[in-house]
Amino acid sequence: MPQFADRVAKAQRSFIREILKVTADPSVISFAGGLPNPASFPVPEIAAAASKVLYESGPSALQYSTTEGYKPLREWIARRYQEKKGMDVNPEDILITTGSQQALDLVAKVAVNAGDTVVMEKPGYLGAIQAFTIFRPQWRSVPLENDGPDLAALEQAVQGAKLFYAVTSFQNPSGLSYSEEKRAKVAEILSRHKIFFLEDDPYGELRFKGQALPPVYKQRPENSMLLGTFSKVAAPGFRLGWIVAKGEIMNRLVIAKQAADLHTGSLDQMIVHQFLADNDFEAHVARISKLYGDQCRAMQAAIAKHFPKNVHVTEPEGGMFLWVTLPEGVSATELLKRSVECKVAFVPGAAFFVDGTGENTLRLNYSNADAATIEEGIKRLAACMEGCMAGGAACAGS
User: Fold this and answer.
1) How far apart are CA 21 and CA 66, in angstroms?
2) Surface-to-core class of residue 24, CB atoms within 10 Å of its CB (0-12 exposed, 13-18 middle, 19+ buried)
3) What are the start-end ranges of the H helices in 312-370?
4) Which has the closest alpha carbon to 268: 250, 241, 244, 287?
5) Could you tell me which of 171, 168, 154 has the C-alpha nearest to residue 198?
6) CB under 8 Å to 157, separation ≥6 — which residues?
7) pLDDT band at 23 (very low <50, low <70, confident <90, very high)
8) DSSP-assigned letter for residue 164
9) What is the mean pLDDT of residues 251-265?
10) Which of 163, 157, 108, 99 is nearest to 136 (CA)?
11) Strand partners, 318
């Protein structure tokens, strides 16, 4: 067989996607995937929007389109940034992508050469780690505190680096958010360095507690890119995301997008835009946020009831995830082996670290399970934890 390109020779499959194969068993309670709750999908409204688009604009919806994306959809996105967040974003600053994952790939293509230094949060989003790894960067990581990054570590890490990637609201995997003070200080640090900033904001709309805060991009737009997606607030099956960027950055991203797929599907873009035009989007998002808030509180209550007291858990104000830290010396990878036998799954935290640490951490998703399922799953997982901490036999199902 001919030799594969160096960029993929050592690339690995997504750890989360592989775990999801285990959860295909309906008897397994899964807290592993970052899956929106199907109950939040606006199926009748989407069906009506699809019918309207096809009957009124069928030929154009099924035709090739522009690389930048469907203009009315880009106008809607830009207007919402202006009105809801007070940001200087125009339609020409928006590039529609095939999900946020393609956006990560496009940014890596235009910004990162082999050997460039990419700075990640610690822990950091696995999908971004996978996307950037293809381009063979050098990694630096910045520890997260309860209100955002360790600023001294960030100041040191960005020196001489090419790009800093961050999820500033309800971070994946930790659930943590940058405070208003940390956002201002991060913007100030980045403004003193010639470094690309990639801010990923897939969960920012899903706030169920606390005060809404604008992205760091608002304070530091130069050399910055902001990602958004409809996967968490409409439906992931559309694979619709976007990049906010200006000037030459946007020009380079468009070129990379043309080489990748010419443009994201016209039909999906037009259907989503029709859905947004015909429905109360703010009320729709409010319903999702309430649903996830209820599920998060159900998981927190179950954890308080069942988990060992020496296990630490984050307290998110929105999003889809809780982050669990086990006592030192307890392996989440070993715990997963036992928990699968108990018919409950999660993602071990080591996959979210670029420096080989995090073995005693794990991520739990609460958005795709009802309260009764959460209670049972946490009860099973707690039993497995007790067994791992005691070094005893594999846990038994409930």
Assistant:
1) 36
2) exposed
3) 332-341
4) 241
5) 168
6) 119, 140, 141, 142, 164
7) low
8) E
9) 97
10) 108
11) 207
Q: Cα 208 to the chain's mean position, in Å?
A: 17
When the pLDDT of each residue in the chain is averaged and rounded to a whole number, the result is 94
Copy the structure tokens of residue 146.
Answer: 């309860």
What pTM did the predictor assign?
Answer: 0.94
**Which token pair is 120?**
């990640």
Classify each residue of 254-271 as buried b or exposed e, where b means 16 or more C-beta atoms within 10 Å of its C-beta: bebbeebeebbbbbbbbb
Residues 6+ away with beta carbon under 8 Å from 174 = 123, 144, 314, 321, 323, 363
Nearest to residue 16, comparing CAs of 348, 380, 387, 388? 348
Beta-strand relationship, 344-345 and 29-30: parallel
pLDDT higher than 50, residue 394: no
The dihedrals phi and psi of 253, each to the nearest 5 degrees, come to -65, -40
pLDDT at 4: 79
Q: What is the number of alpha carbons within 13 Å of residue 259 lying toward its C-beta?
A: 10
Taking the C-alpha atoms of residue 14 and residue 127, their distance in angstroms, rounded to an integer, is 8
Angstrom distance (rounded) from CA 337 to CA 195: 41
Instruction: Tell the burial category of 294 from Cβ atoms under 10 Å away from its Cβ (0-12, 13-18, 19+).
Output: middle
Q: Position 150: which residue type? A: D
Backbone angles phi, psi at 236, to 5 degrees: -70, -20
Query: How wide is the angle at C-alpha 208 spanned by C-alphas 205 and 212, nearest 5°?
Result: 55
